[in-house]
Amino acid sequence: MRLYSLSVLYKGDPKVHLLKAAYDVSSFNFFQRSSVQEFMAFTSQLIAERSAPGSRASVKEQEYLCHVYVRSDGLAGVVIADNEYPQRVCFTLLDKVLDEFSRQVSKMDWPSGSPATISYSALDGYLSKYQVQTPGP
Fold first, then answer.
1. Which of 25, 81, 110, 125 could bond to 10 as cystine, CB 3.0-4.6 Å?
2. What is the dihedral sign for C-alpha 32, 38, 40, 43?
3. Minimal CA–CA distance to 60: which of 31, 81, 30?
4. Does residue 127 belong to any structural domain of this protein?
5. Over the stretch 24-67, which tens digit does the pLDDT of each residue have?
């Protein structure tokens, strides 16, 4: 059971844009990592774009399950995990991250923000904290 991506996006007019993201692509071949990360960023944006404000959904994309939560204020979170990762845990993580993000980052910065301009460093910590360690043989 793995988490691969955790993203915070803003669903404003006219489209969705990424505010901050963390990725764990260590389980992929070194030469695949950048394209896998691009795929996850693109998929997160697309799923957030297609989800209505105030909604939660889980969408299967290739061998991944993408869990999205779009708050009514336009802040959205996407977790990309493998098929075995518990859905309930993903939505608990999204609730926690979006609440914390909205407390730490001014709402005025959301419409124009980008990963380079938003200072919120907790995503990498959450991504590793919520990884399920599988016991060895």
1. 110
2. negative
3. 81
4. no
5. 999 999 999 999 999 999 999 999 999 999 999 999 988 899 99
Number of domains observed in the structure of the chain? 1
**Residue 136's pLDDT band (boundaries 50, 70, 90)?**
very low
Residues in the chain: 137
CATH number reported for the structural domain that contains residue 116 in this entry? 3.30.450.50
Q: Distance between CA atoms of 26 and 2, rounded to whole angstroms?
A: 11
Instruction: Establish if 130 belongs to a structural domain.
Output: no
Q: CA–CA separation, 84 vs 21, rounded Å?
A: 22
Q: Is 114 helix (H, G, I), strand (E, B) or coil?
A: coil
Closest C-alpha to 20, from 99, 77, 82, 92: 77
C-beta separation of 9 from 111 below 8 A: no
pLDDT (tens digit per residue) in 63-93: 899 999 999 999 999 999 999 999 999 999 9
pTM of the prediction? 0.93
Number of H helices, E strands in the chain: 3, 5
